[in-house]
Specification:
Length: about 280
């Protein structure tokens, strides 16, 4: 993998991890379309996987630092009773929403990725992701609840929806936002919570890969390239988060539809190209 490919992958990861278009689906489809000749399962690719995730998680921590600082200070008793209670509630909701993906991911993630990670299959699931986004907009409740009204049941439902992203082509942020919409949360609140619960998921995936990284035979120079790519991924993720939060704040009707149209167009094109070209 050369530096140009590394930066391309970094930009792809940083943007599509937050946009509701499936980073995993794009990571499977785009290298196949461009005929990039590198082994995503090889030891040389592992530092990219770990550091790109670290860069993306750092960007999320940086953007939502007030949420995380408020949560930490409240839980540790460094804030007043009201803020402490709000922090404990938010922590509980994040944990509840994370549990389903942790359990199902631990049991089935590798099997699902092996089963559905062929480029053509991932492209087809991008089309299915488009349908999920449009369906979520169509069936969302008439209510427009803010994030502060999120309940434990809301968080559990969102967490269950998050499990769909174990399949390449199905977006984690897309499914969690749809889950929030179906519970009556507004777009901004659903996106905010989606990005908050993304942080432990991404950090957890990074930590799980570290033991493999320590045992891998990494070629010289790979870590330098991976570190540069991680910075690019982090900056891209930061810009993507800022854009999306502003976008969802200003658009609370059919806001997911543009991303659905993109997924449908790109999925259909990729399916046809990979099948017939």
């Amino acid at each position: 993998m050369d530096m140009l490919q590394a930066i391309g992958i970094a930009i792809l990861q940083g943007a599509t991890e937050l946009f509701p278009v499936s980073s995993l689906g794009h990571a499977v489809v785009i290298p196949a379309l461009l005929k990039w000749d590198f082994n995503q399962k090889g030891p040389a690719f592992l530092p990219f996987l770990v550091l790109l995730h670290l860069g993306t998680a750092t960007a999320l921590l940086g953007y939502f630092w007030r949420d995380w600082w408020g949560l930490a200070s409240g839980v540790l008793g460094m804030a007043g009773p009201q803020k402490a209670a709000a922090a404990r509630k938010l922590l509980k909701l994040i944990i509840v929403a994370t549990i389903p993906a942790v359990i199902l991911g631990g049991l089935l993630e590798h099997k699902l990725r092996e089963l559905f990670s062929a480029p053509v299959i991932a492209a087809i699931f991008l089309c299915i992701n488009a349908g999920v986004l449009m369906w979520g907009e169509r069936l969302r409740g008439s209510g427009r609840r803010p994030l502060s009204t999120l309940t434990t049941m809301d968080a559990l439902v969102i967490g269950v929806w998050q499990c769909g992203a174990l399949i390449p082509g199905i977006s984690r942020s897309g499914t969690t936002i749809v889950g929030g919409l179906l519970r009556g949360i507004d777009h901004e609140g659903a996106a905010h919570f989606s990005f908050l619960i993304a942080t432990p998921i991404i950090l957890g995936a990074t930590v799980l890969e570290v033991p493999k990284l320590l045992k891998a035979d990494i070629p010289p120079g790979v870590f330098t390239t991976a570190a540069i790519a991680a910075v690019v991924a982090g900056l891209t993720a930061l810009a993507a988060t800022a854009f999306l939060m502003r976008y969802f704040r200003k658009h609370d009707d059919l806001a997911l539809n543009p991303f659905a149209y993109y997924c449908l167009a790109f999925g259909l094109f990729s399916t046809a190209w990979l099948t017939f070209a």
